[in-house]
Design brief:
eight-stranded parallel sheet, five-stranded antiparallel sheet, alpha/beta
Length: about 775
């Protein structure tokens, strides 16, 4: 067992925190509170996970489906069952040998309705910069003329819409359910209304003003989430007291730090957090790494939440020739530019539009001579952000002053912090939430941390990455599906199969009627919507989702979000209703399914990705429900309450052979999770295994320790087209081996014996196999 117990503690049933063998992410909310999670614990323990991973659980905006909109750091969320419910869940987990990891949100709080739910913010609005809570938030009082802009109304405020309540302490605006209330500055209640409004420490405004006039730091471009200055020791203590208490009491054994790049000084914050939680608490950070970027080695964490691993695993199953062909066809069909040009255009649009207020602050602080260089350095910055004390990357841009801005970032801590925070917001919004929705040749490549312009990862690259993880970050998190992925791993696996048969994208069908794609990548028509770009998105989304319950509404919601995020024809802020009405036409009336030859390729992708994720270095996370076949699109579709396959797992444990992809994936997942939990020594070391023969590049294999081997098939459709394995062999480490998955107790199928094994024989029934040494 990975969970250890110590009789020296005051409560003998409190576990000593240890690195998880694996984590299982649960999305909590009013529809799935702590009690529902507790009911799932026996099943999750039988599945083989070692730790529950809970979504944010401190007090949040009422009804929040995600919990990232924190309103009170001192209380556990009442809608989930409160602190009593959380501690009861921890006790249930301990009774079944499980620990718990909590997602924490240090970067921001909600600007809620009603505002008084966020007491620190309420007090700042009432008392202004002299409030003891003013240090909590990055507010530029000078830019607002001494007032904090509150862009919380749906329209510009009317003077006759304001009124002072009878007690003289609250200013109200609107009527009925739309009424908003604001604190009155002391001594202003008796002033005439125009003077009263001017005398407040805030100015109530329409939400549209935030783009150009906002004077507080926010999360990305979301004005309803105000940034918190956790670099201040007092603010850190106040916002972390409850979480630290839960760690000290043994309720929590690990923490996931959300959006660490939003903080002024991530390393400084993490050092303070590490000192507070002690050396044994498992801490990982949500950090998006570019392909060639590495996590700063001085950070006192176990690693990242795993998007870097997702990109490498996905990339193995993207065919480079096919992705290039799809890119040519996409350009010919849509007339849209290359990936590089798409990303650059999106960055310029977001910086000068959505983040205009943040840009104006930096340009004002840099001065008129350096202002153009500030803009170009932000647009061209190659990674999410620089860090205090580190280097500032150079960019190729034809403007003067770049060296001066880099020097300013390094020598002015306040400017450097705000530059870095703006850079992180820009990368996230321009890449993840705009360019990734515009660039649609292969949608499986447009996940956070990916390289859509060159998504393929070679076997050699994958091995080098895994060896690096094992050497430098062996306890880092790894993921394939999360609450933030635009498509679940199984949807991406199905879409990735198209890279092996790119001609399938051009075949007419209900999912967009994309028309025939010829050798030059031209199509025969724009489709019913008149938007060939969205037709690509629609067809691949439909093929990726396949035949699932509520398929039509789920697809339509995802397509609407994709169209608005891309900003090509409509947007969240300025929706084109006539255009959006035609989006429903792209949703097929009947289930669109992959053709037979690609369904088998999708199966190989699903099982291969699952195997590599669970066997590679790091701590794998299983997203709720994804232990079996799990097809989900972008949120909120991927945040629906999970369906746990209790009956199927029980049948497998009773000796039923797995039939169908869902059962095959569940059997493989349970086998590897149980091995990680019960025999952790198997998952140490990393040794690539090399196949020999004409199809060697279709095999990815490695050994962990001396007693576990993983073998997966990649690009299986191309493999079949070329005649199969055709004598290709793999040299296994000395000894006798058997399959780990497929039956109770780790499987009973005989595997290969010492020496060279024929891959055609080894992978006869399953395209991906975990092998354990016999004896």
């Amino acid at each position: 067992m990975t969970t250890q117990y110590s009789s020296s503690q005051s409560e003998s049933d409190v576990p000593n925190p240890v690195t998880p063998a694996s984590t299982y992410r649960l999305q909590l909310g009013p529809a799935f509170p702590f009690a529902a999670a507790g009911a799932a614990v026996p099943y999750l323990a039988s599945l083989g996970v070692s730790h529950l991973h809970l979504s944010p659980s401190l007090e949040a905006v009422p009804g929040s489906a995600h919990g990232y909109d924190v309103t009170d750091h001192t209380r556990v969320r009442a809608e989930l069952g409160g602190e009593e419910g959380l501690r009861a869940l921890a006790a249930t987990a301990r009774a079944h040998g499980l620990g718990m990891v909590l997602d924490i949100v240090p970067n921001h709080m909600a600007v809620p309705d009603p505002l008084r739910l966020n007491r620190p913010l309420w007090e700042v609005l009432r008392e202004g910069p002299r409030s003891p809570y003013a240090r909590w938030f990055d507010i530029d009082w000078e830019a607002g003329g001494g007032q904090l802009l509150l862009p919380v109304l749906g329209e510009p405020p009317r003077a006759d819409g304001f009124r002072v309540d009878a007690g003289g302490e609250v200013l109200r605006y609107g009527e009925g359910d739309a009424e908003r209330e604001f604190p009155l500055r002391a001594g202003t209640a008796g002033l005439p209304l125009p003077e009263l409004l001017t005398a407040q420490w805030y100015r109530v405004a329409c939400w549209r003003e935030a783009r150009t006039a906002l004077n507080y730091r926010r999360f990305f471009t979301i004005s309803d989430l105000i940034g918190v200055r956790v670099e201040d020791p007092g603010v850190f203590s106040a916002t972390h007291s409850k979480v630290l208490e839960l760690v000290r009491d043994g309720v929590l054994q690990g923490l996931r730090v959300d959006h660490v790049d939003g903080l002024a000084d991530p390393e400084g914050y993490l050092r303070r957090l590490r000192a507070a939680v002690g050396g044994d608490c498992w801490v990982v950070v949500e950090k998006i790494l570019a392909r060639q970027e590495r996590l700063p080695p001085g950070w006192p964490v176990a690693g990242t939440t795993g998007y870097d691993a997702l990109h490498r695993v996905d990339g193995l199953f993207a065919d480079p020739a096919g992705t290039a062909e799809l890119a040519r066809a996409y350009a010919g069909t849509t007339g849209l530019p290359s990936w590089g040009a798409t990303a650059a255009a999106a960055a310029r649009e977001v910086l000068t539009g959505d983040l205009a207020a943040e840009l104006a602050l930096l340009e004002r602080r840099a001065g008129p001579e350096l202002a153009p260089a500030v803009r170009e350095l932000l647009i061209g910055y190659p990674v999410y952000r620089p860090y205090p004390g580190g280097e500032v990357a150079e960019v190729a841009a034809g403007v003067s002053g770049l060296d001066g801005v880099r020097e300013l970032v390094l020598r002015d801590p306040a400017f450097g912090a705000r530059f870095a925070q703006t850079s992180a917001a820009l990368r996230a919004k321009s890449l993840e939430d705009r360019a990734f929705y515009r660039w649609a040749p292969l949608l499986s490549a447009t996940e956070v941390g990916g390289e859509p312009g060159a998504p393929a990862v070679s076997v050699a690259e994958f091995h080098a990455y895994c060896a690096e993880l094992e050497r430098d970050w062996p306890a880092t998190g790894t993921v394939l599906s999360t609450h933030d992925t635009k498509r679940s791993a199984d949807v991406r696996a199905r879409i990735a199969a198209l890279s092996q048969a790119p001609g399938e994208m051009g075949k007419s069908g209900e999912a967009g009627e994309a028309g025939e794609v010829g050798e030059r990548g031209k199509t025969g028509g724009a489709g019913r919507s008149g938007d060939p770009q969205l037709e690509w998105v629609a067809r691949q989304s439909a093929l990726g989702l396949g035949d699932v319950p509520d398929r039509g509404p789920r697809l339509e919601a995802a397509l609407l979000k994709a169209a608005r995020e891309s900003g090509l024809r409509t947007s969240w802020t300025d929706p084109d209703e006539e255009y959006e009405a035609g989006i429903a036409d792209l949703v097929p009336g009947e289930a669109a399914e992959l053709p037979g030859h690609l369904r088998e390729a999708a199966r190989a992708n699903v099982l291969g990705m699952t195997l590599l994720h669970l066997a590679m270095p790091g701590v794998p996370e299983v997203y709720q429900g994804s232990e079996t076949e799990y097809r989900a699109l972008v949120d909120p579709d991927n945040r629906r309450p999970a369906a746990f396959p209790r009956g199927v797992l029980a049948a497998l444990d009773a000796g039923t052979a797995p039939h169908g992809l869902a059962a095959e994936k569940l059997a493989l997942t349970a086998a590897l999770l149980r091995l990680r939990r019960d025999r952790p020594a198997l998952f140490s070391g990393y040794n690539p295994l090399t196949a020999s023969g004409p199809a060697a590049d279709h095999c990815v294999a490695f050994a962990r320790s001396a007693d576990l081997v993983a073998v997966a098939t990649r690009l299986s459709h191309r493999l079949a087209e070329s005649g199969g394995w055709n004598g290709t062999t793999l040299i296994l480490p000395p000894g006798q081996w058997r399959a780990a998955q497929g039956a109770p107790g780790g499987g009973t199928h005989e595997g290969a014996h010492e020496g060279r094994v024929q891959l055609a024989k080894l992978l006869t029934d399953l395209p991906a196999m975990a092998l354990v040494r016999v004896g």
